[in-house]
């Protein structure tokens, strides 16, 4: 049976490091500050934002949650972003997704100052990632967290065949760039790819981010592969589960992330790690 | 035997269209203007810039070649860029590569106004490409030209397995993003990938951009594949040749680009096409 990647443990190690970095910055008079803007009353978003806030406070980060009404206009939201862009005490700024229908989300992403873009979604930061710029810049937190997990478990990256299932801007595309920059051979498959198995079976590292519960089964995985499951799905009983059929795959994989307790805990830890990095880089 | 992709013909069709668009813009009082900055006396660059200039003039584009001395400093070059960035009569601006050793080339790339970035190398344009932004923005000319060739020959892209050999910022990486946005399954291989053949043999579309003469041989290609050779190499006799062993591969490929006469003619045609697009978008 494959070993289970303990995302909670890796996240906890990152958080411990973040806490030390926060203390160091505070001694230099810098209080790392994260602003999360939330528009409307989406319950899942509110829970997620509250979890980020609590953990940020635990680590000594100044966390500001700015709640705006569901009927906020594009211009009103842009004005709020401009306010935080200009505020030198704010190092990290994000707008929680999803946004109400009247908001043009890509335009909001482009309005956030690239140097405060803690989500790493601004095209200039994405472009620095794809061109492997030798600069400091933020990167989308879920794939960046996955890189931290792979490194924590000493997964060989150079020359490995990494297959990414899903091509979202939040996970699949930046994940491909990160793995390419780490000298992996990278394949991106998606819903136009036909039989996924022909690709996934050749993967040394398989990252699955589709939102389709149990899409990846035992026969889709190469023996000994490292399997990273980004899914946060509900099974037929409403139980949280992943894009990978964990019970079927765990015996064939060399390393595998569970859901929950795998990628999930890494995302907030990486967001707070990156908040501190932005504060350092702004100095 | 596979069919040969006639890059000269596709380029000629694009140039004819560009000429019409230039005339239309001129009637509206807009003279599409391209500025190419060249630093120093690299002979290959000078020939290439002269070819661009001649073709631009043929198509009615206002082409300006700004020759700077080899000892130009970073600040002097940045000042020249700033001058053209601010000049509303200039629509397209590029700095010819290679640059002398005292110049920080990535910083020059980032200094060019993204709306005049006819090379498509600015990270914000690369990021728009990787995130498949539904906006007008320039894209690196060689891969954009390859997309035009694939479309001209009705090569099916959706669900096709595209394998790109080489991961440069000029070709491999933007090529991967373009093909992914066109719904291909995309694999990027490079010099850390070990045995390339295991990947290239599964390609429906194989794009090779390595600078290694005849790297890809008959046994590396799937029968019927479309093979795009970006190489401009010299063989042992000093003759121009490609990264693909054309004579060996042409019988197994379904479609193949020759060198010369394949990708080469497309790059200048695409640069001038994109000059006109930038002029239109600026209006």
From TrEMBL, chains A, B:
Record's GO cellular component terms: cytosol
Keyword annotations: Amino-acid biosynthesis, Histidine biosynthesis, Hydrolase, Methionine biosynthesis, Multifunctional enzyme, NADP, One-carbon metabolism, Oxidoreductase, Purine biosynthesis
One of the record's GO molecular function terms: methylenetetrahydrofolate dehydrogenase (NADP+) activity
Recorded superkingdom: Bacteria
Record carries keyword S-adenosyl-L-methionine: no
CDD domains: NAD_bind_m-THF_DH_Cyclohyd
HAMAP family to which the protein is assigned, alphabetical: THF_DHG_CYH (MF_01576)
Protein name (Swiss-Prot/TrEMBL): Bifunctional protein FolD
Organism of this sequence: Secundilactobacillus paracollinoides
